[in-house]
Every structure is written in C-alpha cells, then in structure tokens.
C-alpha cells in the first residue's frame, strides 16, 4: 500500500533524453510508484519553445517556458537542458529551494561540479548524475557506492560514442577519417559541429567526472590532458591492425606517484591510443561505450553498453530519480561527494607509457645505429623494430615500439628524431595502452 504523498518532479528540457524521461514517467507511473512507495508526479516540463516537435507524445499542458516558477515547490528537479547557463543557475535555485537534483549535464558538472556539490551538501540535498557519463551504462553508482570500499587504481574508458563509431568504421572498412565522420553525421551520431566529440572535449568532461569520483578528489577539466582524433589516419589504423592493435579514443584516469617527489598523484588524460586487439576494450564496436575499471581488491571490471540515445540515457535518469524518491520515503540526507583525498593532478609529462613511432628514413648505412643512439641518449628502450624498404624512393619506413618510459623522455625522443637529418619525417606517434 502506498501511503507517502506524491513526489513532485519538475523536468527542465524536453530534448531526446528529456522527452523519453517524461514519457516513461507517465507510462510507467504505477510500476514506479510500487517500487518507490510513493507516486512520482510530473508537475511540468520547462522548455524554450512549447510548440517545438518532440520525440514523444506528451500532454501539452505540462509544458511551460517558466523554469523558475516550475522549480518552486518541486521535490526533485531533473535538469536535461544541457549547456552551462541557465542550467547552473536553475540547479542552484532548485537546491536552494530544497529540491534534490538529477542531471545528465556533463559539461555543467565538469565546469561547476564543486560549486554544485557544495551547495547540495550544505542543505543535505542529493545531486545525482548517472546519465552524465556513458549514457545508459551504470558507472557512476558503481564507482560511488559499489566500489566505495575499494581503491580504484585505473580507469580506461571509451566514453564517446561518436569517435568510437568513427575509429571502428576506419578499422573495419579502411575509410579515411573524413569519410567515417561523414557516415557518422549521416547516421545521426555526429553533431553538425563535431568539434566536442572529435576534439576529445566531451571525453575530457567525462574523464573529469570519473576521476573526481574514483579518486575522491576534485579534478578540474582544465587539468585533463586532451588530444582528439583529428590526426588519426587510415595508414595508422592499418598499421595498428597489422601489429595486432586497434586505435581507440581513451579517457584514462590513473593513480601514480609524482616522479619528482614520490607523492601520490593522479593523471587524467584523453588521447587516441593503440589497444591490443585481445583487450576487452577492443571489442567495443560502433557507437557503444565501455569503462574498464581496475580496483585493488575487485580486480578488473568492465561496464559496457549504449553511451548515448534518448531512451537509453533516460534509463539512467530514471534510476537516479527512483533512488532519490526512495530516500524521500525513508528520510535522511543525500549522499555527498567525497573529495577528502585532495591529490595533485599531475601533468602529462609525469606519466609512464609506451610509444609506437613510425619514421620515414633514408635507406643508408648507419641510419639505424644513429636512431638507436638517439633512443638510448633519452633513456628510452626499444622493444620492437620493423623495417620496410621502398626501393623506388630509396627510403625505409621504420615502425618502432618502445618499452615503458616517462612521457617526457618519449616526447623528447620524438622531437629529437624529427630534428635529425636522417629522418625524413615522423609519420605517426601513438601511445600504447591497456597491455
Ligand atoms: N556526444 C556523445 C557521444 C554523446 O558521442 O558519445 C553524449 O555524451
């Protein structure tokens, strides 16, 4: 029997996710009420244009353009409008008025997370954001709750579906980046302006959220080292295939010791990397997402599924909503974010990684020795070397795989190679991860 009063839900935004959240709330009202022990009452949906076409057929009387009034009196505000403003102001107003908040807005959390979490903590409100990373994939709650007693050492995430689709398409068809991007746009994966995805900005925002949560520290998005996929070529993909790798845009969050002081720090970075084809992340195809977590006690875990999509992402929003509503029924304050660890975010030069370097060199006696000397001068050890000679041009292509070394030493080696007279060009440099 349901005895608790209805829980009033105000929805901000009715785009592809928001309209599905509203639809599911209305269609599954009785089932949700039975699970929660109280009814979820959708009191209104704030939008810019009441008459705009929606992905779901929703009662017109629910729509309003007055978000500020809608928020007043709501128990839970679901923010799915995206962007920084007015989302930030409205979320702060919702918290100040006593509401809990569910958001799927990764840009907002990446830019203003600490301010919003502090505001929520001050009044004991809940701020939940499962939909902000990995769409439908449960990853925030597992990090926040299931792994709360463990120590997360590393996260390797494919957190951007558009770029995974593009790289997968290049890998499976041999297409160029431009052609694969055109297909992604045609199929509706890529936005008209794909910069946020292919530039790695979207993945960097998600990396900030994951790292802050996993390492109990605040990671500003500006501290995330970011490289997009715009420089990835069909040749790099083909060469990766030959060597048993696949190129993936990875969001990497890793604990490591500061190489200069020995103090504990974290590295948070986004770049395209070579992943062994035997690694579970290599099996993530198309626009899917996956987050590979390495925890001290649990060992490796992988969370996989749809990283975007209206109804898929609505599942994550509804999960947050049900959890918040249940807390209303049982009482007590919300879960606050723990940033007690306060560890330094180390610069990219501090990490240890492996490089795969492709060089065009003159095919002359002594060239290999000069190149080997250069690696040794920078303290970088070569693991593999493959040479292909083009008789016509008199040039050779060298593919060199290094052992693990400091990023700074590897980057300095590449700079020295590029400046060396025997090197015609540095055709490709990719890091190797996940091995
Ligand atoms: N643009 C994102 C992606 C989806 O391609 O994965 C929403 O986060």
TrEMBL record:
Domain of life: Bacteria
Catalytic activity as recorded in UniProt: L-homoserine + NADP(+) = L-aspartate 4-semialdehyde + NADPH + H(+); L-homoserine + NAD(+) = L-aspartate 4-semialdehyde + NADH + H(+)
Residues involved in NADP(+) binding: 12-19
EC number: 1.1.1.3
Cofactor(s) in the UniProt record: a metal cation
MF terms (GO), sorted A to Z: homoserine dehydrogenase activity; NADP binding
Stored Gene3D superfamilies: 3.30.70.260, Dihydrodipicolinate Reductase, domain 2 (3.30.360.10), NAD(P)-binding Rossmann-like Domain (3.40.50.720)
Binding residue positions for NADPH: 106
Keywords assigned: Amino-acid biosynthesis, Methionine biosynthesis, NADP, Oxidoreductase, Sodium, Threonine biosynthesis
Pathway: Amino-acid biosynthesis; L-threonine biosynthesis; L-threonine from L-aspartate: step 3/5; Amino-acid biosynthesis; L-methionine biosynthesis via de novo pathway; L-homoserine from L-aspartate: step 3/3
Domain ACT residue range list: 356-431
InterPro entries in the record: ACT-like_dom_sf (IPR045865), ACT_dom (IPR002912), Asp/hSer_DH_NAD-bd (IPR005106), HDH (IPR016204), HDH_cat (IPR001342), HDH_CS (IPR019811), NAD(P)-bd_dom_sf (IPR036291)
Binding-site list for L-homoserine: 191
Any one of the GO BP annotations: methionine biosynthetic process
Keyword Cytoplasm (UniProt): no
A matching Pfam family: NAD_binding_3
Key word Nucleus present: no
CDD domains: ACT_HSDH-Hom (cd04881)
Protein name: Homoserine dehydrogenase
Active site: 206 (proton donor)
Family: Belongs to the homoserine dehydrogenase family.
């Amino acid at each position: 029997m349901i005895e608790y009063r209805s829980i009033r839900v105000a929805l901000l935004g009715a785009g592809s996710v928001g309209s599905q959240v509203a639809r599911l709330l209305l269609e599954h009202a009785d089932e949700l009420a039975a699970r929660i022990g109280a009814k979820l009452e959708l009191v209104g949906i704030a939008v810019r244009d009441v008459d705009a076409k929606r992905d779901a057929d929703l009662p017109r009387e629910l729509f309003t353009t007055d978000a500020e009034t809608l928020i007043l009196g709501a128990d839970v505000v679901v923010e799915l409008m995206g962007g920084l403003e007015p989302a930030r102001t409205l979320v702060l107003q919702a918290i100040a008025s006593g509401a809990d908040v569910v958001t799927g807005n990764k840009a907002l959390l990446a830019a203003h997370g600490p301010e919003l979490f502090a505001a929520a903590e001050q009044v004991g409100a809940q701020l939940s954001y499962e939909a902000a990373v990995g769409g439908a994939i449960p990853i925030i709650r597992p990090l926040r709750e299931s792994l709360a007693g463990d120590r997360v050492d590393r996260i390797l995430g494919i957190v951007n579906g558009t770029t995974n689709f593009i790289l997968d398409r290049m890998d499976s068809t041999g297409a160029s980046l431009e052609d694969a991007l055109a297909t992604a746009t045609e199929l509706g994966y890529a936005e008209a302006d794909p910069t946020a995805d292919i530039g790695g900005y979207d993945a960097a925002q998600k990396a900030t959220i994951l790292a802050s949560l996993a390492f109990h520290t605040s990671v500003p998005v500006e501290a995330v080292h970011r490289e997009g996929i715009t420089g990835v070529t069909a040749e790099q993909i083909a060469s990766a295939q030959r060597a048993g790798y696949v190129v993936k845009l990875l969001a990497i969050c890793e604990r490591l010791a500061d190489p200069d002081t020995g103090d504990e720090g974290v590295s948070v970075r986004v770049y395209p990397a070579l992943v062994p084809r035997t690694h579970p992340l290599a099996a993530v195809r198309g626009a899917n997402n996956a987050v590979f977590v390495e925890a001290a006690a649990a060992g490796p875990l992988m969370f996989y599924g749809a990283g975007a999509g209206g109804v898929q992402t609505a599942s994550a929003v509804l999960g947050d909503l049900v959890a918040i509503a249940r807390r209303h029924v049982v009482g007590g304050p919300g879960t606050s974010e723990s940033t007690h660890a306060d560890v330094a975010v180390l610069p990219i030069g501090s990490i240890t990684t492996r490089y795969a370097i492709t060089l065009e060199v003159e095919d002359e006696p002594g060239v290999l020795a000069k190149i080997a000397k250069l690696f040794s001068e920078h303290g970088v050890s070569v693991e593999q070397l493959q040479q292909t000679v083009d008789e016509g041009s008199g040039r050779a292509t060298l593919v060199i795989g290094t052992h693990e070394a400091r990023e700074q030493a590897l980057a300095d080696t590449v700079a020295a190679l590029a400046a060396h007279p025997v090197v015609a060009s540095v055709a490709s440099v990719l890091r190797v991860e996940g091995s």
